[in-house]
Amino acid sequence: MQLKPEQLSQHLSRPLASVYIVSGDEPLQLTEATDAIRTAARDQGFAERVVFNVDKKFSWDSLATEGANLSLFSQKKLIELRMPQPRPGKVGGQALRDYVAQADSDKLLLISTGRIDARTRQTKWCRALERAGVSIAVWPVEGARLPNWIKQRASRQGLNIEPDAAELLAERFEGNLFACAQELEKLGLRHGKTAIAVREILAGGSEGARFDGFDLLEYSFAGDAARSLRVLRGLQEEGVEALLILGSLSWGIREMAGFASALEQGDPLDRLLDRSPAWGRRRAEVQAALRRHPKKQWWQMLRFAGQIDRSLKTGGHDQGWELLTRLGLMLCGQEIMPYNQCP
Description:
This protein is an alpha/beta fold. The chain is 58% helix and 10% strand. It contains 18 helices and six strands. The protein has helices at residues 8-11, 27-43, 61-68, 89-101, 118-121, 124-132, 145-156, 163-173, 177-191, 198-202, 213-222, 225-237, 242-264, 269-274, 277-280, 283-292, 295-313, 317-332, and strands at residues 2-3, 19-24, 48-53, 77-83, 107-113, 134-138. The protein has a six-stranded parallel sheet with strand order 1-6-2-5-4-3, sandwiched between helices.
């Protein structure tokens, strides 16, 4: 039987199967699925646990021996087989088929392994495991699926996260669900039941600072160069990472580029802002910014932000802060776009 990761919790509330195989390359979901099965096994009386790591020195006879041995400490035993890649070879494949043929309800075999492709799924050992038990394949959560995954996970933790904030988290942590899950835990500790908006995400790396990335965006979009520079200097003095500030500016510029594109297509700005919790309460700043810069300039500034990102990541720390200052002034309409960023 095959299950999706989100179906596992309900399944584990019932008597367990004798075999589970959890496969995939996404570490967070792989870890959480195997942890859930271990917990359910312990709750259902599988008090003894034996762990095998399949490497070059591993003897598949160990699996057969352990499957035949009686438990020393309880009537039920969990046998865990950690197999980095789903390639047990001829001997291992036969050992798995033999184990399944004699499996009983007092022993639970939990196999964790890498992603199983379509060809491997048709092998005799894999088909035998899936017929005898439960197969859970975990896949990376990417692109358009990630914001919804973030909202669902936040809800399970009792957090209320606004859609724009979920989108921003998805942009920051795509490809690293572990880091995204940790960030949600931090947000929960800092804000509890309070609704988490974009501002809380942008301020995430600067706890205790007088300013945050949203302050910088607000003043820059309003065209207030003096305040924008004061916030930028304050963030630098407080030790906030330049890449975090760049991330805030890049996100804001990308938002405005999207608004500018929608306006060209005839969408009313009021309707766009009504759908955006982050900017709906800052209509004056958004209107000023969109009047000051046409769509073409927003995309030019986004390319310039990419140049700053490369500078910061290749050791150009001082130059990176200088370029951040120039980007802030551009947003305020006080500096001309560098020639090499023009189309």
